[in-house]
Amino acid sequence: MSARSSLTIVLAAGEGTRMQSSLPKVLHPVAGQSLLAHVLGAAPKGADARLAVVIGPDHKAVADEARRIRPDADNFVQRERLGTAHAVLAARDAIVSGADDLLVVFGDTPLISAETFSRLRAPLQSGAALTVLGFRAADPAGYGRLLVEDDRLVEIREHADATPAQRAIKLCNAGVMAFDGRKALQIIDAIGNANSKGEYYLTDAVTVVRDLGWEAVVIETSEDEVRGINTKAQLAEAEHVMQARLRKAALEAGVTLIAPETVYLAADTTFGKDVTIEPFVVIGPGVTIADGAVIHSFSHIVQASIGRKASVGPYARLRPGTSLGDGARIGNFVEVKAATLAAGVKVNHLSYIGDADVGANSNIGAGTITCNYDGFSKHKTTIGEGAFVGTNSSLVAPVKIGNGAYIGSGSVITKDVPDDALAVERSPQTNREGGAKRYRELKTRSKKPKDG
Fold first, then answer.
1. How far apart are CA 345 and CA 343, in angstroms?
2. In the chain, what are the domains?
3. Which residues participate in catalysis according to the annotation?
């Protein structure tokens, strides 16, 4: 397959009005990645694989997402909406440039796989002019039926036009197609618009191929794989399917998921060996978890790396830019953001560590906060190796705590602390004899009702 060049045209111009959202449909996420990103990730790659994305007018965000995922992508704008074949021809210049195979896919089918695209292209090597992707629908109502005779596809009959016998057919059109690249433009240009809407439908390519005496065939896949997303309900259904796939892959890779159905993963989550994920954990995009790490219940992690045998949670939040070294421990109700915690660091409870570097084997006591934001800018806290920060301390950035330094509990540290120094900053305690009694008496008198 790699010897054949390919052009993949991704149709991504839909407004997605049924999503009830200002966000273009293909930018809605499943498992932490846009619908479009999933499709582009599955499309053929390599020196012989080109990619064209057809977008709607004023959809710069879609163009930017396409190039973020695939810098080699060319974007084409469909300015009029005259049907799927018309949308494909928005990328005419890419088609004219030539390729052995032309794939036409949709940007709202996030569950489709690279393996299916490969299977779709395979019949073209044996002389087929067109391959259509089909599926067996549990409820085929509303889908176009694939009419097959002698192992050849002869027509796609829309549900409204189908006879009762044809409606009984469960083999349905998924819309995804692969064309012989040398014949593709001739086929698509021959599609007419003699229908009630005056639009150019890609499904008519089958009839064109048949009339030209060429061969069209069907490749089948599962219904789940070709789920198109048009509503938030369908988006949720796709998320459900994707999460089941990701959990299955994690389990097969040796990850221990104690209650898999309660764990949510991102499409790009990577695991080392002997990782354990306890129930009710949410892992967002950009997370790597190394060998032997344990993620305890009710933790939320996004764009973070977790070292070997590190421990996170329960009830921990790791925000973007967090890096935990080997054996680091993040306990309950701890939040970490844009911070590097070296090997053996302990932040066991009730703390916020943001915009910080924490040296190896340091201990951060409960209630410690790095005060990183002054209302205008973020500032950095640096804590040296083997430092000890006592309970309920506030470290006002920018500030440096030296190697082996000790911060007394309850301190507000605003100045750098040298290596091995002891820093204590507290207001003097004053005890006023009888003060509490006098305060209570004052409050009691003030609450007595006044004479009327």
1. 6
2. 6-226 (3.90.550.10), 232-423 (2.160.10.10)
3. 349
